[in-house]
């Protein structure tokens, strides 16, 4: 950041999810006077925490992937992640129970991964090496050219440098087709495709470019931040405070209006003016609930026609006794999971034979549960927009707990001492259309320039960050999204001769 004697521009960030926290840090580092308004008492957005009777549950993300992206974020401000939280690399990465009675643990080391693949299919070890070499290249090119480099305009995508860098990459076609060209065994294909859940897609509607997620999983590794993902939220928020950001929790924004020289931000407690506003809230919610109709960038039909990432049926369970059968991360999968994905993206129904994820952070961190107990989170991806009245949720709860007992040998039903839940209704309360738990799915038609822009065209001075914008879904992606939104603010201020005109985001 360059030194300046200019008065700072005022920027209000609406929402304190990862995108909002990131944007606040970058803008404060560039010299802006930044205030974050968060309607809840906790920071973190969907990455919240439940604390009850000695149990601590991360309510949202629980996988810490792409550590290089977090290191890059902290380095932008001359800091390191380990100053704010500690990481432990998990080994195994996770365990899988298939519903035919088979199970496997996926090791953190390459030779262990090779041995696992070879045990299912002759030649699969070498095929894994070949696949991961391509995934590594896709990751390097994808991150540098499609993620870290913001390309908001179509002309940015015909850059000769980009075309040269992307030559030879498999960009189109489905992930399932791409993976099937390397391994035949359906279980191995599932191991290479399950990470698409982190992007809110399926193997059948996500472009093959996202093979890069296998590099994230099997090459870069799976980590756990001590204290859970909430520790990461707290660390980033601390960086923001050190940079001068002000946080106001319990402050719900109720309206945004354009003024001659800025924007008027209305809250339940009053009004304030700001030169610019960055919304870390779904654009559909902002347009529907905060903006006058003349300031909408998209019509209702646009939002109705989007493909949303799944919602989630969540159980937060405090369990008596230990659970050695389960790893920190455990997947329970039918051998044919196509029906579950069809229930999400095609028929919009509750899954009859669900695939799901079980998180037991107390296997790694004894601070998240009382002695002699385990903290368990069960996540079942379900279709956004489902009706989830209490009777339906109760019935599905029994189905999932029965399924878990049958296929893992772990019967929790008589051991639960604390229980909370969330589903479509709770995610809709965050303003996510149809109660999606993640945002816009990463289909081909919703990748890159097809995602909503960081700038609002209809409301000058309004910007967006988060999982509905580029580069997309997930903690690392929304961190980068915040950087992109802040860069757009700085560029516009420079073009308009505003107070940020002589400033720039850190480029070292």
From TrEMBL:
Q: Which GO terms of type biological process are on file? A: carotenoid biosynthetic process
Residue ranges of domain Amine oxidase in the record: 19-489
Which segments does the entry list as coiled coil?
none
Name a GO molecular-function annotation. oxidoreductase activity
Transmembrane stretches, start-end: none
Enzyme type, top EC level: oxidoreductase
Q: Specify one Pfam family.
A: Amino_oxidase
Q: Which UniProt keywords apply?
A: Carotenoid biosynthesis, Oxidoreductase
Q: What is its EC number?
A: 1.-.-.-
Q: Which pathway does it serve?
A: Carotenoid biosynthesis
Q: Would you tell me the protein name for this molecule?
A: Phytoene desaturase family protein
Which gene name does the record give?
Answer: crtI
